[in-house]
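2024-03-11 09:14:02 INFO worker-7 job=invfold-0412 stage=load source=structure_tokens
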């Protein structure tokens, strides 16, 4: 039996794209010209602004979930992490949907932004949209942004 809408927990759904980098990429140290020459960008941007097909399927949902838990614990602590109630709904290796409590969408975006490495590969997560329904979050993937 389904709950009435007034009794359901309110959620927000964040659609995101992941940019994966090279495992051997070096992050430049501030004010260090010697290391700046060896630095590589996180990921070269394709001409059409879309994600490379080479990064699809590179990471599993389990890897992303582990990094989300680790980042939320370090940024928000135990209490803040449980208040956000971050869950991975879908992930295909390059894009996915994360759910959270509706009042904690800003903190969830911050947690996603703090992820810089997944399974010893540099990674960056870019939130492309926030919606109140899963169907609305899926629409962000069909639109060219």
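2024-03-11 09:14:09 INFO worker-7 stage=emit residues=145
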């Amino acid at each position: 039996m389904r709950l009435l809408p007034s009794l359901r927990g309110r959620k927000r759904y964040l659609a995101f794209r992941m940019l994966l980098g090279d495992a051997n990429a070096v992050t430049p140290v501030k004010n260090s010209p010697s290391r700046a020459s060896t630095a590589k960008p996180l990921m070269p941007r394709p001409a059409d602004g879309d994600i490379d097909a080479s990064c699809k399927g590179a990471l599993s949902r389990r890897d992303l979930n582990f990094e989300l838990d680790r980042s939320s614990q370090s940024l928000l602590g135990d209490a803040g992490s449980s208040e956000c109630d971050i869950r991975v709904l879908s992930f295909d290796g390059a894009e996915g949907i994360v759910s959270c409590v509706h009042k904690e969408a800003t903190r969830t975006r911050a947690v996603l932004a703090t992820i810089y490495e997944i399974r010893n590969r540099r990674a960056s997560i870019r939130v492309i949209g926030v919606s109140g329904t899963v169907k609305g979050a899926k629409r962000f993937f069909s639109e060219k942004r």
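2024-03-11 09:14:09 INFO worker-7 stage=report msg="DSSP finds four helices and five strands in the chain."
2024-03-11 09:14:10 INFO worker-7 job finished
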